Amino acid sequence: MDEELSRTVSAFRRLVTTINRAKTHDRIVEAAGVHLDRPDVQILTYLLDAAQPRRVGAIAEGLQVESPHVTRHVALLERRDLLVRVQDPDDRRAWLIDLTPAGIDAARRCREVTTTWFADALAGWPDADRAELSRLLGQLADDLSVHLQGVLKCGPS
């Protein structure tokens, strides 16, 4: 296997592990002043990024989880007035999930915490390196997401 690719995968795993640690999540919600589970934050920030209401299936696909998982969390977030169901204007039989003002606020506060952490970690980086990191991470996220969706739909080879 390509040594450089091995180092890249290793670094990526360390980064993902760091971000996905329970302690990291606990510190995010504590600093943001919200009491949310990790899936709740993921759903809220996914909708914040989408900047428009989405169907449960689209949220599940975007987060690469099963729809029943999203449905359970959406119901809890609705009861907390962080999400609301709105009718799909293209299909009056279907419902979309949208952020309430309180949901937008909670998602933005969580996003601000993680953005500050990244800003602090990258503070000594030259602007060109930060721009390149942003470009490459975006490209990796897009390409790996598409690749894994195909792999996961096909099952093991």
What topology does this entry show?
Blueprint: H1 3-20, H2 22-32, H3 38-50, H4 56-63, H5 67-79, E1 83-88, E2 91-99, H6 101-121, H7 127-154
Antiparallel strand pairs: 1-2
Helix pairs in contact: 2-6, 3-6, 4-5
Q: How would you describe this structure to a colleague?
A:
- With 157 residues, this protein is mainly alpha-helical.
- It folds into 2 domains: 3-121, Orthogonal Bundle (Arc Repressor Mutant, subunit A); 125-157.
- Helix content is 71%, strand content 10%.
- It contains 7 helices and 2 strands, in the order H-H-H-H-H-E-E-H-H.
- The chain has helices at 3-20, 22-32, 38-50, 56-63, 67-79, 101-121, 127-154, and strands at 83-88, 91-99.
- A two-stranded antiparallel sheet has the order 1-2.
- Strand 1 and strand 2 (91-99) form a beta hairpin.
- Helix 4 crosses helix 5 (67-79).
- The longest helix has 28 residues, at 127-154.
- The protein is globular and about 50 Å long.
Poorly predicted spans: none
What number of domains?
2
Largest sheet, strands/sense/barrel: 2 strands, antiparallel
Span of the ends, CA to CA: 19 Å
Strand content: 5-15%
Write down the overall mean pLDDT: 91
CATH architecture of the largest domain: Orthogonal Bundle
CATH H-level superfamily title of the largest domain: Winged helix-like DNA-binding domain superfamily/Winged helix DNA-binding domain
Q: Tell me, what's the shape?
A: globular
Main attributes?
157 residues, mainly alpha, Arc Repressor Mutant, subunit A, 2 domains, 7 helices, 10% strand
